[in-house]
Amino acid sequence: MRQIIDLNTVAEGALLEKANQAMQQVVENISDPNTEATKIRKVTIVLTLKPNDERDLAPMQIDVKTQLAPAKGVNTKFLIGEDSAGFTAGEMKSGMPGQMFIDQEGDVADDKGVKVENIENQENVEKEKVVLFQ
Percentage of the chain surpassing pLDDT 70? Predict the structure, then answer.
């Protein structure tokens, strides 16, 4: 069969360039540890030709699309409760509600990540705000 069109040279190499860029995106997506490793990725090349009535001219649209794996979701836990000021919520930093832990800086913190020394200072500030009515 005689070769009529060489896709390597279509649009002065633009088709090949777009395909190479799409493949680069796919490889980068596969290499990204934030994506699921085994998800399918796709490169779709669509060449759309619309010939005129005389059949002597056919403008062509080149579209190269990628379908990549999305980034993985991230899970966390929120502690929800109620105190004297009303409802409260905060991200749990320790392994269990109410459990103290040692944070990244080596300081002791509560389950929401507030350093113990800050909790003591906060309690002192709250005590200073108490108004006695006689």
Answer: 87
